Structures are given as C-alpha cells and as structure tokens.
Amino acid sequence: MLQIESLHTHTTLSDGKLSHLELFKLAESLGISVLAFTDHDAVPTENIMSEIEALRQRQTKWIIGVEITATLPKDLLSSTSSMHIIGLFVDPKNEALLRHCYLAQEDRIKRMQRMVLNLQSLGFKISESDCLEMSEGESVGRPHIVRALAKYQENNLVTERIRKEMAADLDPGVQAQYSDMMERGETQYPYVLFLSPNAYRNGYVEHGYMPDLDEAVKLIRDAGGIAVIAHYHTIRSKMPLEFFDKLLSEKRIDGAEVVYGQREYGTHGEKGINAERQALREIIAKNSALALGGSDAHTEEDLRRYAMNDWFSSESIGFTEKILATGRVSKQFSSLD
After folding, report:
1. Alpha-carbon torsion angle 130, 192, 260, 108, nearest 10
2. Which of 227, 300, 231 is nearest to 263 (CA)?
3. Residue 34 in 3-state DSSP?
4. Number of Cβ within a 10 Å radius of residue 186
5. Where are the alpha helices (DSSP H) in 122-212?
6. Sign of the dihedral through C-alpha 226, 308, 317, 263
7. Element spanning 301, H or E
8. Cβ proximity of 139 and 108 under 8 Å
9. Residue 228 belongs to what H/E stretch?
10. pLDDT tens-digit map of 274-326
11. Spatial distance between the Cα atoms of 216 and 294, rounded to a whole number of angstroms
C-alpha cells in the first residue's frame, strides 16, 4: 500500500465535521501513514491531547499543526487580503500561539455576527444561535454559516433568486465567475453568491484580527514548527510567484503546499492548477525549501476522495521525512518514533 500522507486536515475544533479521534481512525482505515491536525487558528486542548496521546503507538502517525489566517506581507500592496499558513510540529501549549488562537476565535464570533446581519439584509433567515449550534461553540467559520442557512428551506429560495440575478448579469467577469460556479456544483453556490471576498452579493466579512505573514511565521517557528503557504491558488492574484520566490530567498517562509486544489481537477481549472503546482515545485527546489501539502479534508468524503485518488495523494509520500531532515523540528509534538 502507498504510504501517502495528509499534512493538512480539519476537525470539529475548527470547521471540520469529524473529531480528532474520528479523523484519525478514518485515516488509519484508509492506510494514510501520517496525518497532521491543522485546524484554523486552533490547537488541541489538553483533553484532546490526552486522546491523541493514546494513539501514539498506532501504525498511522499524527502531527500537531495549525492553520493560521494572516494578512499578506506588508511589502505587498494588497496586504489587507487574507491568506493561510500551515504550521507543523507546533507545541500546543506554547503561550504566544495559544494567545493568538484565543484572539482569533474571539474575532471569529464577531465576524460571524456581522455576516449574519449581512445575510439577513439579503433576505436570509439565520441567527447567531443557528451558527453557534452548527459549530458547537468551538470555532465559527463560513462552513458553519452555510450549514445554519440549510436549516431553513426558505433560504433555498433566496439563494436561487441571487443565482438567477447573477445568471442574468451581462458583465463578462461575472459570467466567467458564474460559469465556474455552475461547473463546480451547488456546494459552491453560497461562497460564490454571497460568502466570499469577491462574491456576487455582499454577505462576506473579512477577519478583524489577523497577524501578517511574517508575524504568523514567527508564531509558528517560536512554537517549534515550520511554516508553509497553504493552497497558493487562493492568493495567486495577490501574490505573484516572483514574490513567493523572494519570501523563500529571504527565509521568511519555509515553503508551500504543492499538493492542493484537488477540486480543480475535472474542471476547466485543471490545466492551470497543474502548471501552478509545477511552478511552485521549481521555485521551492531552487531555494532548497519544503514542498508539502495534503487533503485539506473537512469531511469523511474529503479524506476518502484524497486517499482513493492516489495519482494525486501519492505525491505526498516522503513529506514528513523531508521536514525531519531539516533538523528544525522536534518529534515531541507528533507520534513519530
């Protein structure tokens, strides 16, 4: 069996649907050799760590990580835009990292409250308590808001109304965005129509609290980890590859994911994502940096699809070995021998 790894996954601690234990057992059943828990601005609590520690001797190995939401570097003009940075092998008890997580989660509540008001103004039936119910009060993100909207059947009518308005819009840019949404399917409707920075209608709210890239990398490194840029395609229009090269040459980041964007395959974006991932590999190799990645799984279906498509996930073989070879992380915050 291929020793595939997934160094990017989410649990119920942020916006995933499976607990740490459920996700681990699923990964084990799928033959995944290494699994990193990388929740959004959250690290496992002491109780969760106790559960994870009990899995230390299992064949599938785990790594403690985090996915920090940050602004782009200050030396980019679009520095107010957000990006995600994966940290691996971090100490879940690091005080500065825990302080960041606390501030980020507090901000997520405020952000959710503002998005609820925006959505109500668009005609949706939704409340703060609906969103908290979907998140179980741990961390509130857009997937929880989408699930809250799905509670009420009348919200489907509002979504359909906005979809028809977008379909009738003759702006070429809007039409390109609409065609892409239709190709990807209904799961993308809420994000493209009203819950993303470039959505057709204004429901989205940006994070109020975010460190910038350099501050986020420092948080991760000071917690004992390595830091890589997550799913570059989400910031490709804001951070040119030349700037990414500059970040690596200045040692301001440790690498980037090159295994990402599985949902692009089978769409018109497939060719572009292939070329982009290859370009990242070449820049990373030139700078002797880290090329990593994973499933970015939020659900059981996500991880199963990743494991099943070994043409994609097999690229992850040996990722952890490459990190350890840098000599910059401790195995303490993992179950690796």
Report:
1. -40
2. 231
3. strand
4. 10
5. 128-135, 142-149, 154-168, 172-184, 189-193
6. negative
7. helix 300-308
8. yes
9. strand 226-229
10. 999 999 999 999 999 999 999 999 999 999 999 999 999 999 999 999 999 99
11. 20
